[in-house]
Design a protein that fits this description.
Oligomer: single chain
Shape: rod-shaped
Strand content: 25-35%
Number of strands: 5
């Protein structure tokens, strides 16, 4: 009789261990399934953040036209950006993005702006020279002051500001 009781206790113990292991495996598969979407969610959040940052950057004091060109929204002062490009070391890590690129829509071209060829260029690159990350674009007005016959005027062109972020 004692042997049958011990055998039943051992069977119950093995069944409890088996059931516990079964539910542990189910929990591991469930967590793996739930966490597999976390990477995609992180990339989606980074993209949304970059979209909002593209608009914020265009209206930030370092980029915006301010009252120089009237009260325009999403207006970027090209002269300010070129000055900022010279002292970029002061802003390292300030925007927490890989690159910021401003590209004129017309005329098409791929000539990167430097202090020697500005304003006869099409692309202002702020950050690394190599293109890394995923770019999120936003349309802006790219304005600068010019003069015709010693009369200053505002020259504004349609451009894209593209903010790059690193995928997680």
């Amino acid at each position: 009789m004692v042997r049958k009781g011990q055998l039943k206790i051992q069977q119950m113990a093995f069944m409890l261990i088996a059931v516990t292991l079964f539910f542990a495996l189910i929990m591991i598969f469930f967590l793996a399934f739930r966490l597999s979407g976390a990477k995609g969610s992180a990339n989606l959040l980074a993209e949304e953040g970059a979209m909002m940052l593209a608009t914020k950057i265009a209206n930030s004091p370092e980029f915006s036209c301010g009252k120089s060109f009237g009260n325009q929204v999403d207006c970027v002062d090209a002269d300010k950006v070129m000055a900022l490009k010279k002292d970029l070391s002061e802003y390292s890590g300030f925007w927490d993005v890989s690159n910021i690129e401003i590209r004129k829509i017309y005329p098409e071209g791929n000539e990167t702006c430097t202090s020697e060829n500005y304003p006869n260029c099409n692309r202002i690159l702020i950050g690394k020279e190599e293109m890394t990350g995923t770019y999120v674009p936003n349309f802006i007005s790219l304005c600068r002051k010019e003069a015709i016959e010693n009369q200053p005027y505002n020259k504004c062109e349609l451009a894209l500001i593209m903010v790059a972020y690193e995928s997680k």
